[in-house]
Amino acid sequence: MVKLNEKTREEYTQLLIELLSAEDKEGFRERFLDLHPVDQLEIFQRLQQESRGRLISYLNPSEFAEVFEALEAEEQREVVKQLDDSYAAEMFNNMYADDVADFLGELKEETAKDILEAMSDEDAEDVKELLQYEDETAGAIMTKEFISLEASESVSHVLEKLRSKAPEAETIYYLYVVDTKGKLVGVTSLRDLITASPDELIENIMSSRVVSVHVNTDQEEVGQLIQKYDFLAAPVVTHTNELIGIVTVDDVMDILEQEATEDLGEFTAARGATDVNVTAFDAAKKRAPWIIMLMFFGMITAGVIGQFEETLEQIVILSAFIPLIMDSAGNTGTQSLAVVVRGLALGTLEKKGLGKTLARELGTGMMIGIMCAVVLAVVIPLLYDGNIVLAFVVGISIFLSLSIATVIGSIVPLIIHKLKLDPAIASGPFITTVNDILGLLIYFSIATSLLHYL
What we know:
Blueprint: H1 6-21, H2 25-32, H3 37-46, H4 49-58, H5 61-70, H6 73-80, H7 85-93, H8 97-104, H9 109-118, H10 121-131, H11 138-141, E1 148-150, H12 155-165, E2 174-178, E3 184-189, H13 190-195, H14 202-205, E4 213-214, H15 219-229, E5 233-237, E6 243-248, H16 249-267, H17 280-307, H18 309-314, H19 322-346, H20 348-352, H21 354-383, H22 388-418, H23 428-449
Parallel strand pairs: 1-2, 4-5
Antiparallel strand pairs: 2-3, 5-6
Helix pairs in contact: 3-5, 5-7, 8-10, 15-16, 17-23, 19-22, 19-23, 21-22, 22-23
């Protein structure tokens, strides 16, 4: 297999383009099929429409299936339009069932139905089964291409079975053992098989302590389990412990990336609009509701400032520190939000304890507040004619604001988590706005009470 670096990739791509232009089918196939599927994908994506069509015609459906599987959903929808029905059906037959289900799940029901009818009955049934499970569950992301064993089989018999069935399986590093009713009873590894005596029975080398996931388990929990145990795959079972599929580590990597992207969208109030391929109109449509909602929260902030209009009229210099109070409280609250959401996602918060986490965040906020107050106590008198009282007002306000902001940033996602919702919904902009309001109330309340000394 050819390995490409940046320099050779450019040269190799140019060579393949020239072979396509010259209609040298055999020369193109020899070089293209010698590449890693990832490099095949990158070269395919760089080709123009006409060259793509010729590349597809030079490959049989099973060869092109690997390239198609690696494409993004939007690209898949465009590419499939170039394929004739029989070629597409054969290509889908040669893809893993979970990848076909992912693709069909993005299509209109009628279009998906036509594709399933064109596929072979056996492959179509596997895909239909996956499509019936709820989105983002173990059932929806599992693959049906796995090898199961019986405890009474010998190692030599299993190795012979692997030689014939391994090419169809997504992974063979873990082999799951089932009883006569298809219930999961054990697991063994390829390494165990290779090192065992050929006459040894599977029941003597398997482990009966199998970590599995239920078919309705949330995909994020599946990802965390595989990450926790460093698995290459995890078996998926029904409520009766019947083995019906496996989730592989490559799917988990995609899941964790997807979940991280969703959390980032929640944090920034831009859920669904973080993809650079989304059009400006669609991005604006998804981000505008949050911005409009936060704008109304901003009006509450303006109302708070209006309530202390008399204080501002008498001591105009107080207005200079409004951005400082607001920004500091908002930023500190967002930091606590990130800490708690990450702790909930990784499960470390339960281990640490809720009380200890809140106490730690409060302590952190207080110490940051003290440090900021000390800095302001030195800087403000130097800049504002030795005004010690002003330094005290701003310093004590920043201390209280940051202390409260860390608590707010910690409690809000915990409440949302208790309501069985995604804690990332407590987005950064939302927490920031709430802490802005509280920070201003603290600031102006202290300033008003000490007005005669300013």
